[in-house]
Amino acid sequence: MKKVLLLLFWAFQSWAQNPQAPRLIVRGDDMGYSHSGNLALMQSSLQGIQSSIEVIVPSPWFPEAVQMLQVHPSIDVGIHLAITSEWDKVKWRPLTEAKSLRDPDGYFFPMVYANKDYPGLAIIENKFTLADIEAEFRAQIELAIKKIPRISHISSHMGCSRINEEVIEMTKKLAKEYHLIYDNTTYPFERATYAGPSQTSAQKIASFIQMLRKLQAGKTYCFVDHPGLDDAELKAVSHIGYEGVAADRQGVTDVFTSQQVKAAIRELGIQVIAYRDLGPKP
Predict the structure, then answer these.
(1) pTM for the whole structure
(2) Signal sequence span per UniProt (predicted)?
(3) Listed residue (106, 52, 60, 102) closest to 79, CA to CA
(4) Minimal CA–CA distance to 130: which of 88, 106, 107, 98?
């Protein structure tokens, strides 16, 4: 808690000294997909620069995520709407009947868009219905708000809320109904990405700092990545085409907790903010 408040103090000090300082949301995605992910996401908020956490409501470790976030009420939380279950060895299912969103085994399809390694197992390759997506999104929003009432915003896992214009408009409608910020639509911002190689922890840290130096005064940015731990659990998590999950996501945790990164943020006067700081709820 003390470290979260210190991060917020840095942000306020930066803004007070320079109201035109770049503003940066540091977002950690996928809380709930694994115990290791949950631990890393909390570490990245409590000991690092991460300013918002996205929770996957139908995921297997969602109950633990709820407990962790209840203990730390200062952490900004968003609903990471999900209608896919991409990992080969761990799966989750819809909260609703959602027949058009289920694979032959009853799980979510692994992919949103066509993927040669998972032929026929993408949402858009199947006859999904807008009604099923809306019902599932609504169920996830309501359960999240029930368990974590301070939810400030919604985003989407693997871009699932942007499949087509109908889904985008439906998601905007739900965001307005539940008084939630809808990622990059309610209050637009620019995406920030690594500005160089990002395979190893050292490369990620250097590329992240390089990205920080390119942020422009007066603009708001959002950087998104997926903290994790390089442990036995995450070594067992993968899908075809993304096998080095544990090492890759440990690298993200290393970036978000890096003393070099923190020093660069202070040096550059960057204001680290959360979604809830973007403006009043819709």
Answers:
(1) 0.92
(2) 1-16
(3) 52
(4) 98
The burial of 189, by beta-carbon neighbours within 10 Å (0-12 exposed, 13-18 middle, 19 or more buried), is given as: middle
CA-nearest of 202, 119, 134 to 171 is 134
Helix axes 165-177, 130-147, angle to 10 degrees: 30
How many domains does the structure of the chain reveal? Answer: 1
Residue 282 falls within a domain, yes or no? no
What CATH number did the domain enclosing 102 receive?
3.20.20.370
What is the percent of the chain with per-residue pLDDT over 90, rounded to a whole number? 91
Domain range enclosing 206:
2-277
196 assigned to some structural domain: yes
Cα–Cα distance for residue pair 162/24, rounded to 1 Å: 23
pLDDT tens for 207-240 read 999 999 999 999 999 999 999 999 999 999 999 9
pLDDT tens digits for range 103-123: 999 999 999 999 999 999 999
- Burial group, residue 250, by CB count within 10 angstroms (0-12, 13-18, 19+): buried
